[in-house]
Design goal:
Length: 197
Amino acid sequence: MTKTKCSSNCKCLKNWAVIGIDPGVKGAICLVEAKSKAILGVRKFTPNTHTNVAILNTMLNETDKKHILVVCEKGQAYSGNGSVSSFNFGFTCGSIFGAAISNPKVEWLYVTPKEWQKYFEIALDPMPRKGLSAKEKQQVKTQRRKQIKQNSIQKAKDLYPALEKAIGKNDGVSDAILIALYGISKLGNYIKEGTCA
């Protein structure tokens, strides 16, 4: 196959960036250059949906990449969450989705927490169910969530030691970084490699 110079619409890896989004209340957004895996920007989300959409639009406009895969964690409302917080979460996710897909450079991908956590080997084995009271099950769930958050933070720090201070104890930032990196592993569904120099 004869290699040619990249055209403006070439979908080779060097023309891609990936944005990872943890849409939770303490979430964040991370922009990564696909070929080098260099982080081009990380921002924590705010409680204001309009500000978060503006953060996404700024990142989309700041990159010179011709193609962007936006990977958003597929959240869900849990029992015990109030209806207002569940509505706000859904509104935020919908607003981010709308802002992203309205950009012609963007491809969209939802990912479950289990998918990307398994990819980075930070997920835990299934929780034991037998012999536990309801209160004990809740305590184990809480401990497991904390452990997964700590695993996420440590994994992101291991991959990007220069960002250790920026990541700190914020699992939203570490999750956004890891979600973006997971997205790079899924670019094979979108890129057309080997046709350009």
